[in-house]
Design brief:
This protein has 13 helices and two strands. By secondary structure, the protein is mainly α. The protein folds into two domains: 129 residues, no CATH class; 112 residues, Ypt/Rab-GAP domain of gyp1p, domain 3 (Cyclin A, domain 1, Orthogonal Bundle), CATH 1.10.472.80. This is Rab-GAP TBC domain-containing protein.
Length: 253
Amino acid sequence: EYYEELKNMVLQYDIVIDKLIIMDVQLTARNDDQYFVFEDVLYKTMLCFSRDSEILAPVTTDRSAGSQVIHAVLQGKPATLENTLVFPPSGVIPFHGFTMYATPFCYLYDDPCAMYYTFRAFYLRYWFRLHTVSSHEQGIVALCLLFERLLQCHEPQLWAHFKNIHIQPIKIIFKWLMRGFSGHLPPEQLLYLWDLILGYDSLEIIPLLAVTILSFRKENLLQVNTQQNVEAVLADLSSLKVMPLLQLALLKE
């Protein structure tokens, strides 16, 4: 089957991207007490992902996406169309934290093949929008704008406080948006959030939760006036419960 072909391609040849993937797994999942036990399966998943050419077309043909692929000419060959390949085959260049899009699925599947296809489906439907600049209403730019509008509208006191101390809240919480809270929420709570994303088929739940967390920590945030202290107030999300927070936010409206 196709997954076996991907594994064989990983074994047959190395690409430069492999070093980035291995480094990312080591710097993220390996250093996380919730995910370090899944280090081996994450290597397999992410390395197979880099070889998966079926990812290339859906991402690059999305008219609202601004992502561009890298083309490479085979070494020692003339620069013709026949000798030009997309690099990497998936068309996706990994970045720091990219592995965190896959880590929560380790808790759902014993079968690496099933985990891979679920991760790939989520990536093609949602996650690629979180790291590409686009005009899409579910893209990262639109989500940042939605966060700022929600915060300004529903927490004007907090918005004014950030303005007075010359801090842009989007800079503080951007990592939450870009990773879909992976690595910031405990796995159980993260899966509740991702289940809501799937259920509503919308990424707008992510900025809504971000605003709700700021609202929940409002009293502490109003007492600090430096970016370092603001980040300290928001650093630990391990005690938060996603469903009650979102229910409170929606009922309040």
